[in-house]
Amino acid sequence: MWKYFSWRLYKASFLKMMRSSDRPDYLARGVALGLFIGFLVPMGLQIAVVLPLAFLLKAAKIPAVAFTFVTNHLTVFFIYPVQCWIGSYLMFHPFRYEVLADQLRGLIDAPDMNAALEEIARLGGQLVASFFLGGLLFGVIFGLFGYFLTYGAAIRFRARRDARKKARSRTANNL
Hints:
The chain is mainly α. It has helices at 7-19, 24-40, 46-56, 61-67, 76-90, 97-108, 113-123, 125-174.
């Protein structure tokens, strides 16, 4: 599976986002929204939730969708149990991590949306509440971090690009 991930693709995607003519706050809202929904909403429903919200909040659609994949088929085996475990502590009724990982395995292995919804109903209200509470916490933290990181990166990238253009134009004018 790792053969599909390449730093060259990551760098090309990052540069494409930074080179776009969109405002830095527009891009940052898209990244923050994608991260927030990626943690809060279970896999399978994320794109259906993030796209309408991106239109409503005037956020960049492509980064919003792309950053929902923070939870994917490789990362949910770690993220979802930790998220539920943290959420259970926030509810003052902590779970044991091993029990959580075992209970969530059926949800992660669900073949389609109907099976996933049936599995959620089977898990019980306390686990579902801890999932959403932990997801809310992770979504807020990582969403804010993603917003400020993207906003700052876009500002710095564009300032350096403009300085290079200015230096080239001065050099060309001196010749």
